[in-house]
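Supplementary notes for students who missed Thursday's class. We covered one full example, reproduced here. Read the sequence, then the structure, then the short commentary at the end.
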Amino acid sequence: MLQAAAKTCSVASTTSRQILSTIRHYCKKTPTTLRVSEAVSGAGLGGNIKVQGWIRSVRPQKTNLFLHVNDGSSLQPLQIVASSELNNPSLTFGCAVEVTGTLKRSPHHKQPVELEADQIQVIGECNPVDFPFKIKERHSLEYLRQFPHLRCRTNAFSSLLRIRSEATTAIHSYFKKNGFVQIHTPVITSNDCEGAGELFQVEPPSPESNEGENFFSVPAFLTVSGQLHLEVMSGALSKVYTFGPTFRAENSQSRRHLAEFYMVEAEVSFTESLEDLTKVMEDMFRSATEHVLAHCPEDVDLFHKHVTPGHRETVDSMLKKRFPTMSYTEAIDILNRSSEKFAFPTNWGCDLQTEHEKYLVKHCGNIPVFVTDYPYNLKPFYARDNQDHPEHTAAAVDLLVPGVGELCGGSLREERLDLLRARLEEAGLEETYSWYLDLRRFGSVPHGGFGLGFERYLQCVLGVENIKDVIPFPRFSHSCLL
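Structure (token representation):
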């Protein structure tokens, strides 16, 4: 029996060793998949790893092959070092690859680590002759704009997309930390919040529908703003915001306009002061910008060094100083006392144009500036009447920023039922906005809010002149590619 037991133990021991050997073999041969950003930071150093991405450069030599591979997780690529035996004609600029090997410290100061490859597999080929981007050329943003389906493959646009993502995260984080509740306001609406009439009407092209009959029983449009829906919610939740697409049927192809763009909008209840709104605007701007600079330093530097040289000084100056405030009347006085020749009039009562806004920003030291108390007739029906005759202004505010002009627009809302009803009657809108009057009938409170154009914010921080270069798929008059 003892011999049988010993034999059994011996077999069990042998089996265990075989299992352990198999596990070690498996662990050694199975690489850890890392993102390029993780590998570049040194994660998995000394280990067997796998990266997947696209080739940004190819440099074959007599005995070695050097590749730069990027997967979009960072601006910096990972250098691949391989034997020239692994080279093949399919390894070209733009092709997709999967590379396995050992991550080691690099002997060169230009990169901290490099991947010593033992296997390179081409996942997707790319013909460098037909590919519109060339390996050694720095393409302009205007050139990239011709290829909305491919421009994300370039350093500049992939950097923009990472910055845009971080800025989105930063804005949501700011509102969450400050007690705001996010509201998903509708994209399809029966309201024209701005009153400008530049709306896209929504109707299905159905031959079965009766002529003159609306799908929603009322005319419906793509939203120009989520403000009125936020005002509804602010009657129960004292701090609310939304962040989503908005639409304007503006027949313009200028550098400033898009038919589809993103807006950040907020409403605050129990406030009778424009200062409460300007504080939120300024704090959000600073918080988001500081977050982007801290989390995307290389991506931001690419723009500040190669796209808009010198703009970093402007951004740093914006963050160092508090934003000054002036009234519309003071702004008009500054414009009229200047020696600048403006294309548009600067009489009291005229709306400020982009040229006026940019001049006021420069007048204040090229930092953001708040302009308050605009003429009452320039603002929509919901703006609060200051009742300050003879000038007659509304409690409205715009934030003007370098290089862009107006970034934010907001106001206290007219909470007094009699004044609001009178203005809606004057505009012939009392029946249309009867529900809006109900908000004032049942538990109304003083409140206010604002909207920020997200693409204009990115233009401001990066110094990009054309708004079409800071959105993934620009839509504008006579252009809806993809």
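Commentary. The first strand starts at residue 32 and ends at 33. The first helix runs from residue 2 to 29. If anything here is unclear, bring it to office hours.
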